């Protein structure tokens, strides 16, 4: 009898010990998870708070209550072509030029995203500016936002300015971005040099040379041939690069959540945003959008000469693209 009782107690003791130990382990694990999450949030919040703001832009942004959120992405070429290793941002946008103008559209209901390139040589006539659309940037970021909204009737809800030299640091923080080249490629002006066809992981310096290339050449049949589409071809390459960069950033955060705060911190050296934009909320929306795939569009344009200047005007099919980005029309077929 005594032996049987001891056996029963022995059988019960091990599960009891496990049951006592399990809650403790769960509490420790849960506490560690919460602390790590809190640490990530604090780090990301501090980094987000340090992102520079562009004064005055919020005053001209559209009411964000519609069906879509549009981000105006402006690449600021604030330094002359020269040393691609130079870093930093310009505090005053006056006198600089918007080398790249894009609209990132996010559908609030579905989370779908699309990216539109606006040619910098597009001729516009607005109450505040007449001439190439990128010239409006000389009067400040708010003037460019107003020009886009008035000339194209596309609402702008958020503003993000990307300094190309800070952009170099951001690409390095991502570990590079992969681009595939069908043939050897170069631009002797920016320093781009891809000696053999294939997929190349571009670091910040090479990515900068690629994104800013205006004299893009490919080696075909033993002869270097410059891209005849000029700025339109450059816009296509930039859309593709932005798309791949966003996908790389999302994959980086997925694989290493602890990198979030560091990426936001580095982003602060590459971007400036409007006063109303919350970087953390924007990043969350962007992650969802990029996960679903990013459709890319270009504006159909035709070349013209106005007052002796070579410019571009809207061509057939532009209305359908613009209606989509206004949130008033269906999605047309992507450009690329």
Please identify which CATH superfamily of the largest domain we are dealing with: LCP protein
Based on the coordinates given, report the CATH architecture of the largest domain.
3-Layer(aba) Sandwich
The helix content, as a percent range, equals 25-40%
Count of DSSP-assigned helices: 8
Per DSSP E runs of 2 or more residues, the count of β-strands stands at: 16
CATH topology of the largest domain: Aminopeptidase
Strand content: 15-25%
Poorly predicted regions are 1-14, 16-43, 79-95
Helices and strands in order:
Blueprint: H1 2-49, E1 68-76, E2 98-107, E3 113-117, E4 123-125, E5 130-132, H2 141-152, E6 158-163, H3 164-173, E7 177-181, E8 185-187, E9 192-194, E10 198-202, H4 204-211, E11 217-220, E12 223-226, H5 230-255, H6 260-267, E13 271-273, H7 279-291, E14 294-298, E15 301-306, E16 309-314, H8 318-326
Parallel strand pairs: 1-6, 3-14
Antiparallel strand pairs: 1-2, 2-3, 4-5, 6-13, 7-10, 8-9, 8-11, 11-12, 15-16
Brief summary of the model shown:
The chain is an alpha+beta fold and 336 residues long. It has helices at 2-49, 141-152, 164-173, 204-211, 230-255, 260-267, 279-291, 318-326; strands at residues 68-76, 98-107, 113-117, 123-125, 130-132, 158-163, 177-181, 185-187, 192-194, 198-202, 217-220, 223-226, 271-273, 294-298, 301-306, 309-314.
What would you say this structure looks like, in words?
This protein is an alpha+beta fold. The chain has 2 domains: 1-49; 58-326, Aminopeptidase (3-Layer(aba) Sandwich). 40% of the residues lie in helices and 24% in strands. It is built from 8 helices and 16 strands. A 6-stranded mixed β-sheet has the order 13-6-1-2-3-14, sandwiched between helices. Strands 9-8-11-12 form a 4-stranded antiparallel β-sheet. Strands 4-5 form a two-stranded antiparallel sheet. β8 and β9 (192-194) form a beta hairpin. α5 crosses α7. It is globular and about 55 Å long.
């Amino acid at each position: 009898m005594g032996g049987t009782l001891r056996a029963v107690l022995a059988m019960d003791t091990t599960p009891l010990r496990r049951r006592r130990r399990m809650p403790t382990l769960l509490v420790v694990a849960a506490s560690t998870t919460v602390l790590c999450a809190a640490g990530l949030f604090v780090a990301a919040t501090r980094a987000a708070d340090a992102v520079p703001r562009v004064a005055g832009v919020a005053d001209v942004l559209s009411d964000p209550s519609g069906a879509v959120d549009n981000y105006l992405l402006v690449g600021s070429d604030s330094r002359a072509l020269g040393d691609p290793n130079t870093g930093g941002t310009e505090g005053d946008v006056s006198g600089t030029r918007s080398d790249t103008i894009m609209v990132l559209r996010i559908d609030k209901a579905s989370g779908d995203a699309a990216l539109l390139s606006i040619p910098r040589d597009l001729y516009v006539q607005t109450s505040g500016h007449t001439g190439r659309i990128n010239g409006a940037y000389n009067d400040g970021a708010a003037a460019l936002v107003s020009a886009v909204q008035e000339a194209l009737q596309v609402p702008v809800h958020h503003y993000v300015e990307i300094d190309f030299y800070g952009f170099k640091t951001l690409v390095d923080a991502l570990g590079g971005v992969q681009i595939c080249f069908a043939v050897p490629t170069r631009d002797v002006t920016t320093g781009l040099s891809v000696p053999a066809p294939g997929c190349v992981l571009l670091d910040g310096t090479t990515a900068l040379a690629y994104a800013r290339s205006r004299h893009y050449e490919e080696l075909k049949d033993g002869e270097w041939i410059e891209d005849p589409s000029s700025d339109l071809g450059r816009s296509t390459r930039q859309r593709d690069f932005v798309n791949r960069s966003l996908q790389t950033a999302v994959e980086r955060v997925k694989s290493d959540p602890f990198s979030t705060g560091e990426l936001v911190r580095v982003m602060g050296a590459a971007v400036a945003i409007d006063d109303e934009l919350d970087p953390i909320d924007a990043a969350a929306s962007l992650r969802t959008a990029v996960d679903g795939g990013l459709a890319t569009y270009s504006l159909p344009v035709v070349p013209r000469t106005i007052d002796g200047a070579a410019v571009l005007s809207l061509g057939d099919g532009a209305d359908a693209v613009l209606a989509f980005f206004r949130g008033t029309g269906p999605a047309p077929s992507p450009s690329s």
